[in-house]
Specification:
alpha/beta, 7-stranded mixed sheet, 21% helix
Length: 194
């Protein structure tokens, strides 16, 4: 096996969107920290909203005012997730933040939504060697993702867009549309008089 001539740390490679090894000790430690805070958040009773908010703020990179995320929440690192004000995520959000995930203001996420930034090589040898990469996800303001929506790596969803339950978003979606299906396809434009 050849030695990788790239001298950057695995964390630097990951943050640049390049191939990296997820079992790197520095990344593994970041992941363990996130899992500990995530487990505490998920175990906090609903009657303790201040503690839940404190844990969420500790876990995520940024949390706007009035954000509500109902447990269970699952993340890789948490620190690369930014959530805008007044956003609501129902039970079961999975946000794998190997690359940044930006969620705008006033976003509504149904149950069991998955925001997936990691990618893996198609070629078998690097995949067997456990190399992976990631691409960021951006969800615009006032987007509604129905229950079970899956957003794949590198996707941007424009403001005010609605994605129907169970859809898989494989390509960018423009602002002000409704999209449904696998893969999600635009079915109509949203007008101002709805």
């Amino acid at each position: 096996m050849s030695v990788d001539p790239d001298r950057r740390s695995m964390r630097e490679r990951m943050l640049a969107g390049d191939l990296y090894l997820a079992d790197d000790p520095e990344l593994a430690e970041e992941n363990l920290r996130a899992m500990e805070v995530m487990d505490a958040f998920n175990a906090t009773p609903a009657r303790e909203p201040e503690r839940r908010r404190r844990l969420l703020t500790e876990l995520l990179g940024a949390v706007g005012d009035g954000v509500e995320i109902r447990p269970p929440l699952r993340v890789d690192y948490g620190s690369r997730i930014r959530v805008g004000a007044r956003t609501f995520a129902n039970f079961g959000l999975i946000a794998l933040d190997v690359a940044p995930i930006t969620i705008g203001e006033d976003v509504q996420l149904g149950t069991n939504v998955q925001l997936l930034t990691p990618t893996h090589p198609v070629d078998p040898e690097p995949r067997r060697a456990k190399w992976e990469a990631a691409r960021p996800i951006v969800i615009g303001d006032n987007v509604w993702l129905g229950s079970g929506v899956i957003v794949l790596p590198g996707i941007t969803i424009g403001e005010n867009t609605v994605v129907g339950a169970g859809s898989i978003v494989t390509r960018d979606l423009p602002a002000n549309v409704v999209a449904v299906g696998n893969p999600a396809r635009v079915t109509r434009t949203i007008g101002g008089a709805e």
